[in-house]
Design goal:
- The chain is about 50% helix and about 10% strand.
- The protein is mainly alpha-helical.
- It has 3 domains: about 1-45, Wheat Germ Agglutinin (Isolectin 2), domain 1 (2-Layer Sandwich), CATH 3.30.60; about 50-105, no CATH class; about 120-159, no CATH class.
- Strands 1-2 form a two-stranded antiparallel ribbon.
- Helix 2 (about 50-60) packs antiparallel against helix 3.
- The longest helix has 22 residues, at about 120-140.
């Protein structure tokens, strides 16, 4: 199949665009796709969790910290994609936070809860979030907002 745009090169990028409930399909060569601003995926890159984790963690910046319990260095973790023990989470805490947030959407474990007690956990979570917001409002010296948040926390705690 040839490129829909230039008609000369073989189409390697197949792109669908949905606009106003109408689907348009394009078959483009790499050159025409890059000219249109379509990002071309990297070629022949191995998909593995250690590779993905290593690339994500490298962005944080590699410091030469070491786990006191097992002796694993941060560089060894980056190379293998595996932590050595439970203490590694504490040793590499700052480097792992953005990584876990990117992989799981949050660096705080939420988990599942029984149906009966779900409302209790939601209220606790909301109170924790409000307390963090309260602290930020106080730091910004936005005392009116802080008073509103404080009242909301008291209301939730009384329920």
């Amino acid at each position: 199949m040839l490129c829909d745009n230039c008609g000369k090169e073989p189409a390697k990028i197949h792109y669908k665009e949905i606009k106003d409930n109408q689907t348009t399909e394009f078959h483009l060569c790499e050159k025409c796709a890059s000219e249109k601003g379509i990002q071309i995926p990297p070629t022949k890159q191995a998909f593995s969790i250690p590779n993905i984790m290593t690339e994500m963690v490298e962005e944080v910046g590699a410091t030469m910290s070491r786990c006191d319990s097992c002796g694993l260095t941060y560089k060894e973790f980056r190379d293998s994609g595996r932590l050595g023990c439970a203490s590694c989470y504490g040793a590499f805490k700052e480097q792992l936070k953005p990584l876990l947030r990117r992989i799981h959407g949050s660096n705080v474990h939420i988990g599942k809860s029984p149906h009966m007690s779900q409302g209790v956990f939601e209220k606790r979570r909301e109170i924790e979030t409000l307390k963090a917001d309260l602290q930020k409002a106080i730091e910004r010296e936005d005392f009116e907002k802080a008073a509103e948040i404080r009242d909301r926390i008291k209301e939730l705690e009384s329920q």
